[in-house]
Design goal:
Mean pLDDT: 92
Structural class: alpha/beta
Low-confidence stretches: none
Distance between the termini: 20 Å
Strand order of the largest sheet: 2-1-3-4-5
Largest sheet: 5 strands, parallel
Order of helices and strands: EHHEHEHEEH
C-alpha cells in the first residue's frame, strides 16, 4: 500500500521556524519517524514538499495515476486560502487526512477555517509531529477496511 505524504509552504523550515509553535523536529526527522511506523504497518511512503501551490496540485493530480492509496497532507497556510487544493483532493477521490502540528482551531481566527476539512476523511491537529503518525495509523486502518473518500 502506497501512501503519499505532502507538506506545503514553510514546512521545509521546521526545526527553525517558530519552535514554540511548531516544535524543534525538522521535516526530515518527522519523515524518518514516519518511515519507521510505515515499516511496522507494512506500507510504503512517498514524501513531497513544496512552497508552490501549483506543484502541490500537480503532485495530487499525479497521485491518481501512480497507485497512491491514500494521502496525508499538511497544507500549511494553503489550508486557509486554497480552494484549488480542496478541489484537487476532491477531484482525485483518494482518501486524504489533513494534518497540522499546531491546533489551528486555538490560534488566530483566520487559521480556524480549513478548505480541505470537508473533503478529507479526517483531520489531526495540535499533537505536534505525533499527529503525522496518528494520521498514518488512522488512514491505513481506514484503507484496510475498504472505506472510501468522503
Amino acid at each position: 500500500m502506497q501512501i503519499l505524504v505532502i507538506n506545503g509552504p514553510n514546512l521545509n523550515l521546521l526545526g527553525r521556524r517558530e519552535p514554540g509553535v511548531y516544535g524543534s523536529m525538522t521535516l526530515a526527522e518527522i519523515e524518518g519517524e514516519m518511515v519507521k511506523a510505515a515499516q511496522d504497518l507494512q506500507v510504503s511512503l512517498t514524501f513531497f514538499q513544496s512552497n508552490h501551490e501549483g506543484a502541490l496540485l500537480d503532485r495530487i493530480h499525479a497521485a491518481a495515476a501512480d497507485d497512491t492509496a491514500g494521502i496525508i497532507i499538511n497544507p500549511g497556510a494553503f489550508t486557509h486560502t486554497s480552494i484549488a487544493l480542496r478541489d484537487a483532493v476532491s477531484g482525485v477521490a483518494i482518501p486524504t487526512v489533513e494534518v497540522h502540528l499546531s491546533n489551528i482551531h486555538a490560534r488566530e481566527a483566520f487559521r480556524a477555517h480549513s478548505y480541505l476539512a470537508a473533503v478529507a476523511v479526517g483531520q489531526v491537529c495540535g499533537f505536534g509531529p505525533q499527529g503525522y503518525l496518528m494520521a498514518l495509523c488512522g488512514l491505513v486502518s481506514r484503507l484496510r477496511k475498504g472505506l472510501a473518500a468522503p
